[in-house]
Fold each of these.
Amino acid sequence: MTTPITFGKVGGIRIRPAVNSDLLGLIALDEEVTGLAKRKYWKETFARYGARRRLPRFFLVAEHRGRVEGCIIGEVRAWEFGEPPCGWIFTVQVRPKTRLKGIGTQLFETLCDAFRRAGVAKVRTMMARDNQLVLSFFRSQGMMAGPFIELEAALD
Amino acid sequence: MKLQKASSFALYAVLELARNPTSQLSGTEIADKYGISAHHLAKVLRDLGRAGIVEAARGVGGGYRLAVNAKRLTLFDVIQIFEPIGPQGAATDDPELATDAGCALRMVLDELDDHALATFRSITISTMLKLMARRPWAGSSRFAKPSRQAESGR
């Protein structure tokens, strides 16, 4: 059974669920980080994970002085291969100029707290192995390689 | 997987220095703590110094200190000074590597090397210190070892 999440404010950074008025800020943040403007993607992602606030999906933003400085998105996923459901993180972003100030850690910890309250005991993620920046971030949060190996094949 | 002794010794030294950022440690102090050769460690520390990772302070109370940010220094940065990491490419003078079996084997070994590379590149010395503080291996027989001064704390 899920219980409401408490969203805190530490060091002037407020972690809270994303709202509709964050959308433009999120699109701009992503464009600053990736160099690509993905308006459609963020509108669809917000519609799916933010707007309805349908648990166990979580779309959180880090706000400082009214500006979105980072976000994290995750959900509880039923897991295959006989494993119980787990928390799954599929996006984390922090504005480059405000990195190394603990914003990513606050986002991660708040999301993990939400996962715990949703009743899951593990959090997982997946990314390209050459994505050293994000990989290092998750490692710094204590994440290690799990019991699964990702495999793929070209469908000729 | 096993690292060469020099790589392991270098990591022990860097971790000790990162764990004690306000003090300088001598090579002998670190060697004694880990029960390793002080002579070998001295060579390793010289290599780390040449790479700009540690710096030596001379005189009474001299020793080594970390010269870089532990949040930026990865395991890869340290290990690659002492041994190659990651896919090494084909040796041109090994004809068997050009056979189908040789190529298939290289592909599998490269996969393992790619994973090792990604792992070493993504773990910083700061993350290692957090792991050491958390001690997730506590109680695991896989990590059981003879008691030694190294784990007794400073």
Note: Helices of chain A lie at 23-34, 39-51, 103-117, 132-140.
Amino acid sequence: MADETYPEDLRYHHEHDWVRVEGGEAVFGITWYAQDALGEVVYYDPPEPGATIAKDGAYGELESVKAVSDVIAPAGGEVVAVNQAVRDTPELVNQDPYGEGWLVRVRLSDPAELDALLDASAYREYLSGL
Amino acid sequence: MASALLRTPLHDRHRALGAKLAGFAGWEMPIVYTTTRAEHRAVRERSGLFDVSHMGQIEVTGPAAREFLDGTLTNDLGRIGPGQGQYTLLLQEDGGVVDDLIVYALLDRFLIVCNAANVDPVRTSLTDRAPEGAEVNDRSAEVAMLALQGPAYEAPLAPLVGSPAPLALEYFEITEDEVAGVPALVARTGYTGEPGVEIMCPVSGAGRVWDRLMAGPDAPEPAGLAARDTLRLEVGYPLYGQDLSRERTPIEAGLAWACDLEGGFVGVEECRRRKAEGPAERLVMMKLLEPGIPRPGCAVLAGGEPVGEVTSGTLSPTLDVGIAMGYLRPDVASPGTDVMVDIRGKQKAGRVERRPLVQTSPTKAG
């Protein structure tokens, strides 16, 4: 398992999802906190490439040994890629939640939606209040 | 208000190993130490050590003990003598399962091992029925229990036993001996499908037994309740509270083999009736043919109509597919039957399978 970290270059959704902006596209995943709470991830049910996903909506499911969790989109857009490596090896989400364990790549419909997200320090502060 | 969780004598060891602990049947138990997959594999390939001290131990003594238990529990107690154990069940009068058990015949007493959640109902049911000459004593609080399971279980155990007897046990036999100098009952039983032993000892000695088993070059992997669940499900052992309950009898659960229907036991009339008429549903194993993980409560369909429900489900670490146990209508309960499992609104193709899904040989040592 990875050590607890919340990289500074990401933006965070309070449902424990992160987004990394790369031009007009963005990569989504779940935070260290989320993977730790979920436990050992054993299954990823992703959206179809081309699917439209809405901000704050569930776009897929991650399932651990004992629980199922929806993954929430920090912003809306069109799915341009799904991480096939996580489909094949779901524990990548535990081992490297911000790297190899990314979940989808999305073409953002409204990049201004990102403004409502938390930065790393605000997210850490949010976690400390849970 | 929730009452505090009970702790086993090995609680500090679990903490020190970094286990994730969670409440289970009123106990704070280790769920996983590293990963369920790694612990599961260790048990299938080498050996693992489980703290199952939450389980109940109830002793029945006295000159009438044998006759009492034979007339109360489902299996034919006449088939075992001192030093042997037997899988059996305790039912309600209506045939509903109070608990599934192992009863061991010892030289001077019978020892019943029951599920943690059922210690009170089992003790109460036995106490209420016990005749003159049979005494029921709940030893659960005094007894710790460790399950050493896996094809290589003998290696860590062999240097610690007081005599060769524990290593010479046949499947389901039990002996009173010592482990690491601690007086202990060692039984060739378990809940993983692998060869192994269950060690019962005084609470005060459990730490020493654990430490010494863990100390050698052949130390088992500590294994949590999550791996225990995936291991038992791969081999199709039912779990009380999911696959067995007061709402169903052993006949539906495929446990008629553990019921002496010609003899007597509490609930026998209903079991005979259902056996004769044919049960309305049958507990089966299923395997998914596409990605997905069945969970308790998932509906099972065949030919577009509902035919049953999942009672246990997981991702099989050995097969890497979703597997389940569940109750199906008898006409679709035969191995090979194609079914659909509804997982949160998505229908996944599955098939009824023969038990066990993973070939193991608990009767043989590695």
Note: Helices of chain B lie at 11-16, 36-45, 65-70, 119-129, 154-157, 206-215, 225-234, 268-277.
Amino acid sequence: MKNTVTDSNHLPVLVAESISKSFGVTHALTKVDFSIQQGERVAVMGENGAGKSTLMKVFAGVHAPDSGIMSLNGDRYSPSSPIDAIASGIATVYQEPSGFGHLTVLENLFMGRQETSRFGILDSRGMAQSGRSLLDSLGIPSKLLGREMRSLSLAEQQLVLIARAVSREAKVLILDEPTSILTKSESERLFDLVDDLSNKGTAICYITHRFDELDRVADRFVVLRDGKNSGEISHPDRNKILDMMGSRTMTETKNEPVSKDAGEDVRGVSDEQLVVKGLSSSGHFSDISFKVDKGEIVGLYGLIGAGRTEVALALFGELPIDSGEIIFKGELYRPKSSQDSLSSGIAYLPEDRKIQGIFQFMNVGENTSAAMLRSLAKWGVLSRFKERTIVRDAMNAFSVKAAGTGALITSLSGGNQQKVLLARLIATRPDLLILDEPTRGIDVGTKQEIHQNIADLAKSGVAILMISSELPEILARADRIHVLHEGSIVRTLERDEATESLILEAAVGGELD
Amino acid sequence: MTTHSESVVERPSAGLDSAQKISRNLLLARRSLLPFLLVVELIVFTLSSNSFLTVGNFLNIASDATEVALIGAGMTLVILMGGIDISTGYAMGVIAWLVAYLNGVQTNPVLILVAAVAVGALVGLINGQLVAIFKIPSIVATLGMSAILQTVLFTLWDKTDIFSGPILEGLSRQSKFFGIPTLVLITVALYLVLYWVTQKTVFGRSMFAIGSNREAATLAGIRTNIVRIAAFVIVGVTVALAAVTYVGRVGVVQASTGGSITLLAIAAVVVGGTSILGGEGSVLRTLGGVAFIMILQNGVVLAGVPPLWNGLMIGVVILLAVLLDGIISRLNSDQQGSLA
């Protein structure tokens, strides 16, 4: 797979060979090869954590590779910064629009390279003119120029950012899941723009998770798995790509009965562990209703900003609730704080491991016991003996790979850190477990282990609410899926009726066809 | 393609190893900063003055260190949680004035002690509320408090220095217990208690967790607000104790009393090796920092160096320690990266 056959009509623009990049103990990229030709459209595929984004960030000058070599149009390419990369002709548009919300579209277009007249005074008229012709050439309505960026729809912002990227004469345009927040017709508009650019000779690197758009966006599909090249293919064969991604095993387990049976033999009492009725929190979500039975895994899917995490935080007592009711274990429940929820039997695995989860200066043992300190203490004094026992049990239950309980948490791989966080929650013996992106940024092997852990927990009777933006994960693991859009549940799908496209359509706000 | 393949240069994962090595070396530098400074200091001052290396002088240093040490102990807790308290100096001044005044009107020593601790705890409580409940950055909240207390002290002082003996005989500079100054014993006792609290209690563990990652601490069910307020209250109590020993040791309260002590206490904490960014450190390390700073103050005077140089050296040492903290933490977070 190392040497791609080069079409004699096309020149390779960007060539990367044997790129490796590590973050501490995590090998994000190991000897990855990649090349793209003028006007070519290449889709880069892989599970979350497979290294796609890291590779793109190496191209974009965000990360310097530990080893390996890159060339751009035949010259050695080693960008020292994102600015350097842009100047060399590599432009990136990230998944979520990252413009300057309070500035106008025009100001956004020229940010960092304003045109000036003599004495360094901004040449507003000149910029307005070139801005208008830029947007015209891309088929974007030029009346947007004077609007504030934040007043635009996400799709319009995305288009403006692409315009900004190409206005710098990009040789390579990197698009990181640009359609994940767009509706179907908005996506079509973006595809047209991309086609146009590629016809003009810009090479397009396209990261996506969506199989339904594959044949529309790329001529070649490069697959990464656990930071390594795992193959490439020139037509979007779904099964072959899934095989290369290592996702097949996960999708295939779909038919395995996950749970259910466990809940039923719990003494004939009602199965309902959590019932949420008409829950609202102004500015975050409204009229949310669903239930989770004992031993059931309920999935919550939605795009960023749809309110998934907010629902979880409200159940956990960390976001105020305006109206609606929660019935937990058969009783009316009003969460007051995270302490309250944990002692009532609700545990929450936060979305961002590094920012909301781990204590980076503490060791593995201290990280594991953090949520149950008070039950390890008498008169406020910790019992080291009790702590050690419980920590060891919890670490064994999740087969955490660490040098010992005294090892620093940061010496563990992302997957093992996540296991520690799960162990932290399970040690509190929860009846309801809320998992927010439980396998984000984790290698395929550990991901499967964690999925198994989750299934086992469900089997033991724990009710599980799983938030995930990974479709294969939620399709394979959830008994029922609620799709959120702008703070409301817009669709509920049972396990056997759920498909990728049904979920996505609902998540971007309808457009059922 | 093939032409490019030939130009591949193998740099076998050198990047990771060297990054780790740099980070480890920096950490080593940070850890050995204090022992190194102490040794240099002892050698230089021993050579420059005959009266430096004597038992008497070291007992002097230990007594002089009392207030910096007491406040530094409390300050360590706040800094461990990623905060800071710069109101301690004038808080000590105000409380010292109160102690001297009450002692002057023949108040019962126990009552004086209770009053001092109550005022100190109240100041800490207000600071803690401002920081934890009203979400004001601790440096700003306590800066405001400091300005208020400075004015309070100036008003109370009213152009009259107030003289007072120790409230108890045991708190005087000369008082000894089995040959060791009582002030030193009080200091050591406070350090042992706070060390035990930080290492063995839920409260102590919670402080480390908050300093390491406040959001994660909240989500792990730790009562972050209560713990943070409590830490400021503890600082207030150590300030009150310092005010009582100050009156006993120095015997006079002026408008400027306490003004310079905050800087010395913070210096002791960060030079001792507690990270100004929170999460890492120990109360006992601060004791080492106190030793460095008080020996510096003493040695400079004995060597006949203008005291101006004192501030310069303390400033440089604080900046150096904080600089190392910053670089180490940046390297660490670089290595963890983000794999989203």
Note: Residues 274 and 328 of chain A are 5 Å apart (CA to CA).
